[in-house]
UniProtKB/TrEMBL annotation:
Function: Accepts ubiquitin from the E1 complex and catalyzes its covalent attachment to other proteins. Catalyzes 'Lys-11'-linked polyubiquitination. Acts as an essential factor of the anaphase promoting complex/cyclosome (APC/C), a cell cycle-regulated ubiquitin ligase that controls progression through mitosis. Acts by specifically elongating 'Lys-11'-linked polyubiquitin chains initiated by the E2 enzyme UBE2C/UBCH10 on APC/C substrates, enhancing the degradation of APC/C substrates by the proteasome and promoting mitotic exit.
Compositional bias of kind Basic residues: 222-235
Source organism of this protein record: Monopterus albus
UniProt key word NAD: no
Pathway noted in the entry: Protein modification; protein ubiquitination
Protein name: E2 ubiquitin-conjugating enzyme
Amino acid sequence: MNSNVENLPPHVLRLVYKEVSALVADPPEGIKIYPSEEDITELHTAIEGPEGTPFAGGIFRMRLVLGKDFPAVPPKGYFLTKIFHPNVGHKGEICVNVLKRDWKAELGLRHVLLTIKCLLIHPNPESALNEEAGRLLLEDYAEYESRARLLTEIHAMGGPGGTSGAPQDPNDGPQPKKHAGDPTKRAGPSAAAVPAALGNGANGASTTSSNSNSSSTNNVAGKKKADKKRALRRL
């Protein structure tokens, strides 16, 4: 989305900056704030999955976008972390009354964040964006809980396949292979050793061939002598 900084009046920008600064200094419990220095109209947050829910242990990244008519019009909320929840659409859009008909300009961003966190505890299947999650919540809670927990473990708990609100350690993940010349690696046969080995093999083959030829010559000579002796006896 495009920035709305230029579209908001100066007094609204001052109010937003003041409220965001207060949120950073004193964030709601279980919520971290990551304001953008370049665009105050887009607020990134990380919400801890509440205990006792299928989302417990997960960190769910979310963003609030303030439109050009804020605060007369509520901000729009989006989950950036995949989540199986009746009130979160497949593109991350959030459906909650405080972001619609119940919005009042004086409510403020803190109230919005707390309401969205409460939505993780008390989903509302009556205004479901994810119809399958809403149906399972009403008809088969065990299956709903299992699906929601699975996506939490995959996408919200960090690790190789997951995403979280915490910055990723550059040392995480596979490390580059060491160079072939690393002295800690066991050395293989050197280039000089190969010709030497080939040379030894050639010399050995030559010696064997010479011995074989000499033995063959001796056998022929011995056979001729025996033939001569037999011929003399006949005489």
